[in-house]
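From the pipeline queue, job 12 of 40. The input is one protein chain; the requested action is below.

Action: predict structure.
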Amino acid sequence: MRVFYSIAVIAITFMLFTGCEKSEVSSKEKEYSSLKLGISEKSSRRSAGASSYKLSEVTHALITITKDGAIYENYDLQHVKMSQWGSSAEFSTQQIKLLVANGYKLTKFELQNKDNKTIFAAPIKGSKYAAYVSNPLSIDFNITSGDNSKIEVEVVSTENATPSDFGYVSFIVKLAGNKDHNDMVFVKGSTFKLNSSKGNSEISYNVTLSDFYICKYEVTQELWFKIMGKKPLNYKGGKLPVVNISWEEMQTFIAKLNQKTGKKYRLPTEAELIYASIGGVKSKGYEFSGGNTLNDVAWSANNSNGTIQIVGTKKPNELGIYDMSGNVYEMCADKTDNTYPINYSTTDVTDPVGTKGNIRIYRGGGFDDKSELYFHVNCHDNHAVWQRVRNHCYISTKFGSVGFRLACDK
């Protein structure tokens, strides 16, 4: 009996945001995931025909994933190039698309040659080969944004093998949620109520937003320096939020980041920032973003020792977003020519954004604010909180308590 011990680790990372036409799930709900494969032959029971274990014949891999009892997608990973055991193995960059959700099953995993002949295959649960592997298909797994879902797949040789005479290969499959968008969180759009004031009276708007993504964290000084190559005033580095930068400089940073990554990041609109801060469709109506106790969710003058704090160290809100009530104020994309409270042209608006003027809006409360009025996020009846916390500046203004976070379209 020949025993082969060889490990060749390979990685494929595919990250974009597009739909998957074959899927049963709406393309608008799709999020790309990364796929990483680690390969090793754990053992061999075969005494002859060792050439059948050569991986040099493999040219592509077939994977079938089901969800809730229906086929979610059939993947054909092309241009696979592999060599014999003891050497290297690599896959070309490909795309794989998975919704961040639960209830997936891996129901097919095969390695084929250029003639589409299967030379390794994972035994299906209940088949005659299933007893020879520890975890036959189908295999349950979930996808959580930012986390890994590890699956072990064992494939047997299909060349002249019998149940008493075959070898198998172990594949470690890691499916990870999107990490390419700087820890972006998906925000499902809907219509929400936004209270403001007009003159001496209050006014309530019905604001409808499309789906979008927003970053879990405020942009850090570390990321700013990496992209811009220069330090802003009072730079301390690391995971502290970047401050002392103007709206104009934020735009320059975003342009360079987009050029570097090929993405389309932007500042969130005022309406998006408000909506994300209250928890979107998952909102529980908290007074502050993530809870009813300010100290639990925000850095303010009451607990910050008068300085900015590392991002993500307080509790997140319902969407998993940090520091939306405090730490530093956050700049919006909107342009305006006045400093008035929100004053849309109609009471029903869709994806509103100001496009004219030299005045900029920022929101959220800062580490040096003491009054809780600056940190409220939820709009209650007869409580026009957005009038009280709608701060403004000009495009070149810089503050030591104002930063920003990234957003992007669905």
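Job complete. DSSP finds five helices and 21 strands in the chain.
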